[in-house]
From TrEMBL:
Alphabetical list of NCBIfam families matching this protein: trehalose_OtsA
EC code(s) of this entry: 2.4.1.15
Pathway the protein acts in: Glycan biosynthesis; trehalose biosynthesis
Organism: Hansschlegelia quercus
Record's protein name: Trehalose-6-phosphate synthase
Top-level taxon of origin: Bacteria
Length: 470
């Protein structure tokens, strides 16, 4: 069995002083511990803009896993990460053409860093290693590794949505990006809709088609393309929630509610998460359903993110002002409708807060999956579970539509109505809905996800049928 080499923009090194890794990082590190492996990517450190690129990654060994850490110059980071990845690909792949900002300088930086990564990683790879590249920052990495002569099994997983071709083709270099995907043996998306969008793109752009055995031919290579919906560590999260009542933060929160129903939202501060629309829906709900005034509290826990990208600073102001305005208009002397908190919360406390909440508000405008939706379900008390109010545009809706109340986050009135329905839902309906969702996230958790993807990557190659010219 070959080793597993994982490549991601940021490497979660288990060093003291850094926050504990989330479920995804734990699942990937677990696979590497079992079979040996390398986790390769950016160290999180920057070199001055004038420095030369690093010639050798720093290698940190932890058991059977070696973390290979690359420092990036400020210029590289700015062009590749803040620039092309987060100001072009992130908005566009989240259907936000209005926010996408394309520059040739950023694009050049994107390819430059992918080439640097391939150059530094290639000498460390052994012939039977499996290589698994993660996310939109690193799409060209597979092609760059192939250019170095690597014939290893190469997999790519996109954590964010793959939009329909009318949106993707707004990207001036969309053809190169898709050609980059064709260098892999397995391309994984979050949902069947993403796979469908990919298929429509290759057909329309005449660069490929689906074979009768389910594989795709793209730019003349037969590859596997499929939906591998990412999961959470369900069991561990449920256990954390069961024990969280003793957590001081959870205790304080519970006491401060004074018996009011808790509504919770937990998201990185990002325009894709629909936080402003959610606050507007909550305000509409308070206006329409006066009897809920003073009887519920909405807690929105939102750590700031990507503060170096201008669109995020603008949104931060917008959300803070909106929360302030709603509180100003609707608060009473002894009641504040929204508690808007810009901080991270430890995993155990978070599990406890989810469990306290009667409604989990997960209403992104677009999301690859959204793990908060699954965490909220995992944390509920089976005897008195809360209701998940979920955007139909979150990848998680493909799995959790069996029990969640689905909503269109652009429809503020509709979301307000769904919130009232969630708060008033009788216990037997809540239990029934929750049970169906919990079964799903128990049967397919983050370890199953990682095994499904690695299994596809390891499967012996089938003989490729003669490929018609495309
Ligand atoms: P993200 O956009 O970061 O991930 P999400 O899937 O919701 O979105 O994961 C966020 C994680 O951060 C969750 O585990 C959540 O608990 C945690 N988190 C958020 N706010 C927090 C807070 N205040 N304190 C502590 N923890 C907090 C990207 C894609 C998603 C996809 C994931 C995984 O955008 O669509 O689901 O990758 O593939």
């Amino acid at each position: 069995m070959g080793r597993l080499v994982v490549v991601s923009n940021r490497v979660p090194t288990p060093t003291p002083g850094t926050p504990p890794a989330g479920g995804l990082a734990v699942a990937l590190a677990g696979a590497m511990q079992e079979r040996g492996g390398i986790w390769f990517g950016w160290s999180g450190r920057t070199l001055p803009a004038t420095s030369a690129a690093q010639e050798e990654p720093e290698m940190v060994e932890q058991g059977r896993v070696t973390y290979a850490l690359v420092d990036l110059t400020e210029r590289d980071l700015n062009d590749y990460y803040a620039g092309f990845s987060n100001r072009m690909l992130w908005p566009l792949l989240h259907y936000r053409m209005d926010l996408a900002d394309f520059t040739r300088v950023a694009l050049a930086g994107y390819y430059r860093v992918n080439q640097l990564f391939a150059r530094l990683l290639a000498p460390k790879v052994e012939p039977d290693d499996l290589i698994w590249v993660h996310d939109y920052h690193l799409i060209p990495m597979g092609g760059e590794l192939r250019a170095k002569g690597l014939t290893n099994r190469l997999g790519f997983f996109l954590h964010i949505p793959f939009p329909p071709p009318d949106i993707l083709t707004v990207l001036p270099n969309h053809a190169d990006i898709v050609r980059g995907l064709a260098a892999y043996d397995v391309v994984g998306f979050q949902t069947p809709s993403d796979v469908e969008n990919f298929e429509t793109y290759i057909r329309r752009e005449k660069v490929g088609h689906r074979l009768s055995d389910g594989r795709f031919v793209v730019h003349g290579r037969a590859i596997k393309v499929g939906a591998y919906p990412v999961g959470i560590e369900t069991k561990a999260f449920t256990e954390a929630a069961e024990h969280a009542a003793k957590n001081p933060l959870v205790k304080r929160m519970k006491e401060s509610l004074l018996g009011r129903q808790l509504i919770i939202g937990v998201d990185r501060l990002d325009y894709s998460k629909g936080i402003a629309e959610r606050i507007q829906a909550y305000e509409t709900f308070l206006t329409l359903d006066e009897e809920w005034r003073g009887r519920c509290t909405y807690l929105q826990v939102t750590p700031k993110s990507r503060e170096d990208v201008p669109e995020y600073a603008a949104m931060e102001r917008e959300v803070a002002e909106l929360a302030g305005r709603v509180n100003g208009a609707h608060s009473d002397l002894d009641w504040t409708p929204i508690r808007y908190v810009n901080r991270t919360v430890g995993r155990n406390a978070l599990a406890g807060l989810y469990r306290l909440a009667r409604v989990g508000l997960v209403t992104p405008l677009r999301d690859g999956m959204n793990l908060v939706a699954k965490e909220y379900v995992a944390a509920q008390d089976p005897a008195d579970p809360g209701v998940l109010l979920l955007s139909r545009f979150a990848g998680a809706a493909h799995e959790l539509d069996i029990g969640a109340l689905l909503t269109n986050p652009y429809d503020v009135d509709g979301t307000a109505g769904a919130l009232a329905r969630a708060l008033e839902m009788p216990l037997d309906e809540r239990v029934d809905r929750w049970r169906r969702m919990y079964d799903r996230i128990s049967k397919f958790d983050v370890t199953d996800w990682r095994k499904a993807f690695i299994g596809a990557l390891e499967e012996p190659e089938r003989t490729t049928p003669k490929i018609a010219a495309v």
